[in-house]
Specification:
By secondary structure, this protein is α+β, with helices and mostly antiparallel strands. The protein is built from two helices and ten strands.
Length: about 150
Amino acid sequence: MNPNDVAPRRRPRDPDQRRFERWESSLYRSDNTRQEFCAAETANSQKTDFRLNFYKNGSSFIEFVNPNWTLMMGEASFLLRFDSGYEVMCRGKSWGDSDTHDFTDRRMVHALLGLLVNEKSVQLLNANGAPLGTFSLAVAKAALQDLNACVGRI
């Protein structure tokens, strides 16, 4: 995720924020590392944010954040279930109010991006299979294309 191994605090740079209905893409600067990174994100009705974060150096991670969560901090797993039935298991960390997964395998990143572009929705489930939220993937393609362009600008 980032060199300090803590959940990154971020500050969007307003002129670099673009909206695509429920999705947006933004250029951020990490308060922890001062590195700029790009994100494509959406939120659901339970106020859970779903973000894909990409740094210029190629590192990337996925995160789900909800200020009302009180998750146990430490190692965590979560499942992404797409409307077609395809499932992706992610192993990462829980930060109390968020879960993150660092992408260390480019094939997984490409496969996940393909699903996000071609599916209608994705459900987040905890390691026990309990649902934590569902996210619309409508117009995700436009936000992900802009995310790619953003990474090229930093």
